[in-house]
Amino acid sequence: MNKYFFLSVMTIGLFACTGNKINYPVAEKQDVKDNYFGTEVPDPYRWMEDDTTRQVAAWVQAENSITQEYLRRIPFRDALKERMTRLSDYEKIGLPTKKNGHYYFFKNDGLQNQSVLYTTDRLDGQPKVLLDPNSLSENGTVALTGVSFSNNGKYMAYTIARNGSDWQEIYVIDLASGQHTPDLILWSKFSEAAWCGDGFYYSAYDAPEAGKEYSNVNENQKIYYHRLGTSQQEDVLAYQNPLYPKRFYTPYVNEDETMLFVFEAGAGLGNRLFVKDLRKADSEFVEMASDDAYEYSPIEIIGNTIYLQTNYGAPNYRIMKADISRPQFKNWTEFVGEQPQPLSGAAFMGGKLLLTYSRDAADHAYVYDLEGRLQFEVALPTFGSVGFSGDKDDKEIFYAFSSFLYPSTIFRYDIDRNESEVYLAPKIDFKADNYVSEQVFFASKDGTLIPMFLTYRKDLQRDGSNPVYLYGYGGFNISLNPGFSTWRLPFIENGGIFAMVNLRGGGEYGDKWHQAGIKMNKQNVFDDCIAAAEYLIAEKYTQPSKMSIAGGSNGGLLVGAVVNQRPDLFAAALPMVGVMDMLRYHKFTIGWNWASDYGTSEDSPEMFKYLYSYSPLHNIKNDGTPYPAILISTADHDDRVVPAHSFKYAATLQAASTGDAPKLIMIGTDAGHGSGKPMSKVLQEQADNWAFVMYHMGMKPRF
Predict the structure, then answer these.
(1) Separation between Cα atoms, residue 654 and residue 163, nearest integer Å
(2) Confidence at 671, pLDDT banded by 50, 70, 90
(3) pLDDT for 5 beyond 60
């Protein structure tokens, strides 16, 4: 059949749901094969990788039509969305930031598509709008992704992303007038403005080929300096490394504008670090740290001392010092040594050092003096997540705290007296006292103890009949910490258990925990998740017909792999924006950057075989084994995990013999990997996802 065969309108019109059987769109299978070290691997849906064709567009339209028709038939879908809307309709205020005597904070009145940036001279004064992202588009698909204030207090640079893409545009506002300057930066990605003088450093790529903006590999990122009032074409190239075109290069300038740091990342698990002395016109970059198997991150410069956080020689991280005149790693000295718990955050505030450590996946904060001596622990309300805001020389400090049953609350913190008081607490239509969160530990396949948080109603009975929503991630040194979300509340209100499992591959227990879940150890992550499901069944929290599994991005890979290996454990599954083709993931946009966690199919015969053994796309059973109900989700502007992953996975699932439970895909429009998505879209997607799993776990919720 011709490679560019188009699905006909007549054929699309025949797709329908008949009883319990769904007539899926028939996706063309082409004779495409790849040879990996002597093993031929078919890839019949390769044509789906070019998502700009009419053929793909027709398939997407047909799939969305069937999925929406199916979701419309769930009897409580609309009522669930209404309950989620009521729960989400409360004022949300972000952590205040103080710059040059002015306060800045984000606020959402309740259901605004994007939060608005406000400023005020006094916290008890009347704030005024500095930037309203909702005015940048009619449907909220333009998101404010970052702000950066000039050190002289005159300007604010901000980045926006359109339709969920990772591509960024940089604009500048004159803070005195509130008006935009003519400055505009295009084709930036994973960068913000690093201010220095009357301009800033930033990272950008060359303009991509038209039509390939969201799929082609991103290469040759460079650092430029932009002087205000000039065009981007006049910007000065400040740093590039053509030897490594697929790496990231990120600038950072300290507040005193004396040093320009450059992070080079994307090859190992960490980064290389370079520094340039901005006080000297003819200074060259000096390599501070070269072993990119480890992370090196500047925290602050005080006097002639650079303070840094690193896991070199310390899997749980430590704080080091370097002299500006001798910044090479061999000259660094230890300031605060490695602790039994991993260090997850560090900042100088109020003349002291605030360090955040993770203990069993929950944050604990401590204050140190400038000699590196522990003074005291900050008392937090319960196990949860914390983030601080303050300046190294200013005693006014705030922090935001949240947990599963504790909405994000802002506290004012007196660092000298070690006392906290509530500054802003949200008001939500939810009685947290009727619920409980607990942490349990269970043994994985190899005996490793794995932590898991459970949140549910206090009157719950462990009789094996409770619905469970099991959520995990397990990768890239990312920790899943306790946090609040209104999306889960209707589920637990109706007797469900929200279970969040801290799998290996994450950062919950430092570098060793991360290493135990990458490359040839990746199966540990899936074993941990399977063991979590088995624990919940064995302890009579639930049973397979009442259990669902969900995860996004690397977590989508988790869901796909676990469902292939143990489809009998679940009634429903939500693989969201997942990495599903483990043999070709590195060939798109920034996929090459994930090789440090995954390895690639081109590395060696052993690595290929290992990836092939668990790749969700390549291990779907086709022998009649019943699979759970599956709702896949992706989006047309996802240029991080390109939608082809989910397209090919969905087509393969639908063509396979996996039982009668639905295998559907939901493809968002004008949306990306998830960041910056407008509230209106988020509400609908959350209602659809939760309605799907609740329906397939046999729930009949009341709202």
Answers:
(1) 28
(2) low
(3) no
Alpha-carbon Rg for the chain in angstroms: 26
Told to judge if 553 belongs to the known catalytic residues of this protein, a careful annotator would answer yes
The residues facing 34 across adjacent strands are 41
Q: Which of 364, 637, 673, 696 is catalytic?
A: 673
Classify residue 3 as exposed, middle or buried by CB count within 10 Å of its CB (0-12, 13-18, 19+).
Answer: exposed
pLDDT value, residue 12: 33
Cβ atoms within 10 Å, residue 199: 23
CA atoms of 500 and 551, how far apart (whole Å): 10
pLDDT tens sequence across 311-355:
999 999 999 999 999 999 999 999 999 999 999 999 999 999 999
Catalytically annotated residue among 389, 553, 596, 601: 553
Tokens representing 140 are 């909220």
Phi, psi of 420 (to 5 degrees): -120, 145
Q: Is 60 exceeded by the pLDDT of residue 2?
A: no
Instruction: Find the mean pLDDT for residues 617-631.
Output: 98
Q: Which of 120, 128, 113, 115 is nearest to 97 (CA)?
A: 120
Residue 311: partners with Cβ closer than 8 Å, 6 or more residues away: 270, 294, 295, 317, 318, 510, 511
Identity of the residue numbered 559: V
Predicted pLDDT of residue 693? 98
Q: Would you put residue 562 in left (φ > 0), alpha (ψ -120 to 50) or beta?
A: alpha
Per DSSP, 617 falls in state G
Give the span between the Cα atoms of 198 and 14, in whole angstroms: 62
Strands 248-253 vs 39-42: parallel, antiparallel or unpaired:
unpaired
Characterize the bridge pairing of strands 116-120 and 128-131.
antiparallel
Q: Which DSSP symbol is given to 191?
A: -
Interacting residues of 696 by C-beta distance below 8 A, sequence separation 6+? 548, 571, 572, 628, 629, 661
Give me the helix-helix angle, 523-538 and 554-565, nearest 10°.
60
As a whole number of angstroms, the longest Cα–Cα distance in the chain is: 76
Taking the domain 9-85+431-696, which CATH number applies?
Answer: 3.40.50.1820
Could you tell me which of 155, 215, 165 has the C-alpha nearest to residue 187? 165
For residues 658 and 567, what is the distance between their CA atoms, to the nearest angstrom? 10
Residue 577 has pLDDT above 80, yes or no: yes
SS (H, E, C) 274-335: EEEECCCCCCCCEEEECCCCCCEEEEEEECCEEEEEECCCCCCCEEEEEECCECCHHHCEEE
Starting at the edge strand found earlier in the chain, the sheet holding 286-289 runs 248-253, 259-265, 271-277, 286-289
Q: Which is it for the CA torsion 303, 305, 311, 316, positive or negative?
A: negative
pLDDT computed for residue 14 by the predictor: 32
Question: DSSP secondary-structure letter at 450?
Answer: E
Going by C-beta distance under 8 Å and a sequence separation of 6 or more, which residues neighbour residue 459? none
